[in-house]
Write a structure and sequence with these properties.
Strand content: under 5%
Number of helices: 14
Order of helices and strands: HHHHHHHHHHHHHH
Structural class: mainly alpha
Radius of gyration: 19 Å
Shape: globular
Amino acid sequence: MTEEIEENIVQAFFREIYCLKISRGYTLDDNTKERLPELVSYIEMSNEQINYILRKDKEVLNRIFTNETIKLLREVSGNPYFDEEQREQLEELISFLEHRKGVKVPYLKFRLLCSPDEHSPEDIEEITDNLALLLTAPSIFKWFHSEYSFDSLTDKELNEVMGFANLALLNNNQELREKVKRYAIEKLGSKTDLPYSDLLIFFDDLSVQSVIERIFYRK
């Protein structure tokens, strides 16, 4: 939390909490096992186990956001390593924890919605809006409008792009993708800054094998 980050402490905290439970983009080699022994069983979790955790999300968060944790954070907030802005953000985080509130960060809640088999109309709306919103992110926008070129991307941008591309697959759930596409078509005529037309183009491209290979296999 004391490292330089582009987002504030509150967003970073919640991003890490959610990503820890559902993102397993590690290579489990001997070096990883030695450096992160406590994460070995987590990295090897099955999709069924991950889905179970997501369904138990509220219970998991309640165990994390205990009064003991809040008290510890209050003590830590006086650490001289924090500057004034970070200290204010930490106080904001503590307030969120005390009131059992989350932070609206694009793409966090969407990642959770991608897991269940059943999706309500509200889920479809949120999935579509978040995918379209991600297309406006600088790294993803640049990649999308360069015909999926990876040449000028930094490592950080590459991770963001691949995260988005994997999300857009929607767990290869064709029924879900059709529902999302229908919602995007419905929204095309509305006054919004979200690029639903670009999202439809991307979905169409994901049905082309050569594009899939270019994105996921770098051919």
